[in-house]
Amino acid sequence: MTNRESGERLIREAERIFSRDLKAAKDDMDHNMTVRRAQEVVELILKGALKVLGIDYPKVHDVGEVFVQRVREKYPPTDKEVLERIRIISMWLSEARAPSFYFEKNYTYDDAMKAYEDAEFLVKEIKAFL
Question: What is the pTM of this model?
Fold first, then answer.
């Protein structure tokens, strides 16, 4: 399997989690799971995009900074505000990953909606970019 094929597979998985699992968690008002699933979507779509672009990434949950740095290097005219928002989304959701999954924090409706909207934004932007 090529990097491109592997990356496209990760992107499809991110879209599947978004359309099935994330939406279900949001609709069920399961705030912690909404945050958790949003983090998965963001991590997978960023890693998929990096693979499609032929860029190695560290085996960590937050690859937003790597994505932003490499895109700025390779594609300088990219919208700086969008890239900064991608970096921030990846960072906050990766920080929320464990607390949401292990119920170390009870996330609110507002947190869940922000996570959902952030994941939706990222999916849209990455697909448009690629």
Answer: 0.95
